[in-house]
Amino acid sequence: QLQVVESGGGLVQPGGSLRLSCAASGFTLENYAISWFRQAPGKEREGVLCISSSGGRTNYADSVKGRFTISRDSAKNTVYLQMNSLKPEDTAVYYCAARKTQVFRGVCTLQRELLSWGQGTQVTVSS
């Protein structure tokens, strides 16, 4: 069973940085597209970034361009979301997700029903 676990969230001041981790259990992460989503209070969950199995990056949120990057460490079976120049509007619960099925497992998607989700990690940007 595919399982992903997020970590690395916390409280940071505006302009600061955080690195979130998405660790995989039960599967080889580099064979799957892994996406980061976020959900702020009272808002819908939105896609942030995705890395495909081939290493291609897809940016879903214009608001994070130039500030957030996604990377993968195959040896650690982990995907990272590096967040720099954080703003209060980045405050949200951040989730990572992997394709549930083998079909197109390496291709990024925003379709939530096709994804297996972690429990989320809270990121709060505040002075």
Structure description:
The model has no long low-confidence stretch (mean pLDDT 95). The N and C termini lie far apart (40 Å). By secondary structure, this protein is mainly beta. A hairpin with a 4-residue loop joins strand 7 and strand 8.
Describe the structure concisely for a colleague:
By secondary structure, the protein is mainly beta.
The number of helices is 0
What's the end-to-end separation, in Å? 40 Å
What is the arithmetic mean of pLDDT?
A: 95
Strand content: over 45%
> Residue share in helices?
under 10%
Q: List the helices and strands in order.
A: EEEEEEEEEEE
How many beta-strand elements?
11
Give me the secondary-structure category. mainly beta
Principal-axes geometry comes out as globular
Q: Radius of gyration from the CA trace?
A: 14 Å
Pick out the low-confidence regions. Answer: none
